[in-house]
Amino acid sequence: MSKFLHKWALIRMCVGIFVVLDGYPLGFFLKETVGIPIESSIFTAGFISIGLLMMLPTTALRKLYSPNVPVFNALLAFVLMCVLYSFMFNATAMADRSRDLVYYLFVILFLLLLVNVPNEITTQIVVVGVFFTLVSNLALVYSLLTDPDWTLGQRAAIQFGPPGEKMGNPHVFARNAQIGLLCCLMWGNRPNQSFFLRFMGISLVIFNIIILMLTFSKSAILSTLVAVFIFAAANFRHTSPQKILKSLTSPISLIVISMPFLGFIALIIVRPEIWDIITLYGDMIFGRFSQNILALLGAETDKGDLAEFDGSSVNRVLSWTYVTYAVIGDPLGLIMGYGYKYFFMDIPLLETLINQGIFGFLLYAYIFYQLGKVSLSIAYKSGKTEIEILCAYLFFLFLVSYFTSGRPYEMATLHPLCLFARFLGVYYAPDLTPGYVDTALPIDQEELPPTLQPA
Question: Which of 89, 98, 102, 420 is the most buried (most CB within 10 A)?
C-alpha cells in the first residue's frame, strides 16, 4: 500500500510540474472554450497555483535535493535583478510592475519547490508527459473543430476576444506538441517496451508532428530540426550505416514504423481533404522559410521581386540594428542598461543587454552556456535517467525560441529554465536508471572494512 501511495505521489508531482511548465494550452481551453467565467489574469494565477500545490511532497522543507548550483544561483540572481530593476530603473513599464511581481513570485516558488521534489519522479515523468500533452492536443483539436471563425490556413490556436478581433497564441500549442513529441519518443523506445506501446508511441509522435505543423511556428519547427540533428550526430557517430540499416529493416522495426503510416494513408483515403490540408501548410511553411532566406541574401523571388522579410523577422532585423547603434553610439549606457522593459526586441538575449546592461546579459548568457554544455554532454554520453534526457532535449527544442521570440521576463521563458537548473547536471542514484539491476559486490570487496570499500 505504501508503494502504491508513493507512486501516486510521484505522479501528482509530475502533473504539477507540467501544469506550471506547459499548462497554458489547457488553461486556454478551460478559460475560452469551456468558458469558465473568471478574469484571465486571475484564472492564470489560480491555475499555476494549483500546479504548485500539486508539486508539494510529503517531505517538503524537511528533505531538499541538490540542483545544478551554478545555474540555480545565476537564475535566482537574474530574477532578483529583474525585480530590482522594476523598482529602480523603470521609466516605461510601471503599469506592468504589480503583475510582473506576481509572475516572479511564481518563478521563485517553482524554483524552490523543485528543490523539494525527489529525483524519483524520473520513473513517472515521461508517461505523465505523454498523457498531459495528449489531453492538451485533443483540447486544441476540439476547439478548432467547434470554432466557426477558424478556417484552414489560420495558425492553430484557441481563439479569444470579441467577434472580428479574435486572436490566439499558437506558440504555446507548438511548445506542447514539442514536449509531447519528445515524451512519446522516449516512452515508445523504453527498454523492453511492448509492441503495442511502441506502436502507440509512434502514432502519438505523428499526431504531435501534425499539431506542430498546424501551429505554423517557424521557431518551433526549426528548433525541432536542430534537436533531431543533435540526436543523429550523438547516436549515429560510431554506428556504421550497415548497422543502422539492419536495425531499421528488422521485422519488428518495419511493423512498428509502418503501422502508423498505413493508418495515416487509410485516413487520407477516407478523408482526402486531409491531404490538401497537409500540402497547404507544407507550402506555407516552406514558402515562409524560403522567402526569409532569399531576403537575408538580398535575392529576388521567382516573380522577379526583391524578397522581403515577414513581419516577425523584420522586427528582429530592426532589433539587431538598434543594438548596433547602441553599441556604437552609447556604449557607456550598456553598462547599466536603459531600464526595465525599456525596449522590446523579440530576442531575449539581446534584450537583457539593452535593458539590464552587461551584468544582466552575462548572467543570462552564463545560464545558457552552462545548460548547453551539460545538455550536449548528456546527448553525446547518453544520459542515465529519463528526466535528464528529457530536460536536455527540451533545452534543444526550446533553444531557437529562447533566442528569437519572447522576452526574458516571461514565465514561459523562466519556468523551463527552473526545471533545467534543477535536473540537468546533478547526481542520480544508479537505481533510477531504466533497466538497472542491483548486483552484489564481489566477495573480495564485501570482505573489505567499510572505510576501504569503494564509494
Answer: 420
What cell numbers appear for 111 in the block?
524554483
Contact 114, 108 (CB under 8 A): no
For 329, the grid coordinates are: 553610439
**Is the CB of residue 343 less than 8 Å from the CB of residue 323?**
no
C-alpha–C-alpha distance, residues 451 and 455, integer Å: 9
Q: What are all long-range contacts of 106-110, with beta carbons under 8 Å and residues at least 24 apart?
A: 106/20, 106/45, 106/48, 106/49, 106/52, 106/411, 107/79, 107/411, 107/414, 107/415, 107/418, 108/76, 108/79, 109/52, 110/20, 110/52, 110/55, 110/415, 110/418
Rounded to whole angstroms, the Cα distance separating 158 from 138 reads: 12
**Cell matching residue 18:** 507540467
195 to each of 186, 202, 204, 248, 336, how far by Cα in Å? Answer: 14, 11, 14, 15, 58
pLDDT tens across 385-432, in order?
999 999 999 999 988 888 777 788 889 889 999 999 999 989 888 878
Q: What is the rounded average pLDDT of the residues 155-183? A: 84
Whole-angstrom CA distances from 349 to 346, 356, 363, 365, 370 are 9, 11, 10, 7, 15
Main-chain dihedrals φ then ψ at residue 275, nearest 5 degrees: -65, -35
394 vs 367: CA distance, rounded Å: 15
Q: Which residues of 245-277 are buried (b: 16+ CB within 10 A; e: fewer)?
A: eeeeeeeeeeebeebbeeebeeeeeeeeeeeee
Task: Give CA–CA dist 43/172, Å, rounded.
Answer: 17
CB atoms within 10 A of CB 382: 9
Query: For residue 408, which of 336, 334, 354, 331 has the smallest C-alpha distance?
Result: 354
Provide the grid cell at 381.
554520453
